[in-house]
Design brief:
The chain has strands spanning 4-7, 11-13, 18-24, 33-39, 46-52, 57-59, 67-72, 77-82, 91-99, 102-105, 109-114. The chain is mostly beta strands. The radius of gyration is 13 Å and the shape is globular.
């Protein structure tokens, strides 16, 4: 059973930075795609960033230029570096991975940005 474990969430001030990690239980290059999603209170879960097995990275418009997604195969981990954080970035951030047709989710990590 694939496991994804997020970490790195915290409370930060507006303008601050955080780096989230998602550690997988197996070789991350086995996955077709790995993604970050987030869900704010009372809102739908939304896409943040993704990386495919070939290394192509895409971002939601709301985070372009502020967030950077990366991966380290030797650590079986993906990262989301978040800079210039805004109160509207407050959410639970989830790691997602798929080996089509199966999909896997982490338990989430809370990011709170105070104004």
């Amino acid at each position: 059973q694939v496991q994804l474990v997020e970490s790195g969430g915290d409370l930060v001030h507006s303008g601050g930075s955080l780096k989230l990690s998602c550690a997988a239980s197996e070789n991350i290059f086995n996955f077709n795609t790995m993604k970050w999603y987030r869900q704010a209170p009372g809102k739908e879960r939304e896409f943040v960033a993704s990386i495919n097995v070939g290394g192509k990275i895409q971002y939601a418009d709301s985070v372009k230029g502020r967030f950077t997604m990366s991966r380290d195969g030797s650590k079986k981990t993906i990262y989301l570096e978040m800079n210039s954080l805004k109160p509207e970035d407050t959410a639970v951030y989830y790691c997602y991975a798929n080996i089509l047709p199966r999909q896997y989710w982490g338990q989430g990590t809370q990011v709170t940005v105070s104004s």
